[in-house]
Amino acid sequence: MTETNAITRQPTQLDYASPAQFRFKITKLPKVEYFCTEINIPGLQMSSATQNTALRDIPIPGDKLDFGDLVLTYMVDEKFDNFEELYNWLRGLGIPIDHKDYANLVSAGRDRFPNQGKDFNPSRGTKEQPAVPMGPALSDATLSILSAKNNVIKEVRFIDLFPVSITGASFTQQAQDINYITSTVNFKYSYYEFATPGKTSSKVPTT
Question: What pTM did the predictor assign?
């Protein structure tokens, strides 16, 4: 039953969310997360269906949920190490030169799947027919929302994400001031969920 008491429905937290209070951690990109300057919590959209009636057709919820892209902007370091991290990840997924690129990507991701067994041999697989599940080629990530005192108050956890595009780097000698190079990467993923720090992910309430 919905609570209608005006007193008990008053919010207990009146502070606003600050766009600058965040921290991002992604397993596969340690050199990118440190230089992250901008990131979003993606929007989501659900499909809908229509129930036909003798009068007005009634819209009803569908069963397909579409999550928007996770978009991250970061400062490129002087040696381009973080740019190269993303380049290598995309190259491994896209295998533009050699099928071994994907095998190397899977092998490097064994930190997420350490118990593949003694017969693990990534050289036997390709992206189309991998020798092991695609999990090692993916990564989990966590966006931590911070309080005004930089304490983590909420986490947004992204499951099995991978990059689909990165913007290039432009050089110029005509700039009046030094504008350091930034790059933006778009990620796809299975889904994201909210969680309390140190606890398992939050569940959809049943009441």
Answer: 0.80
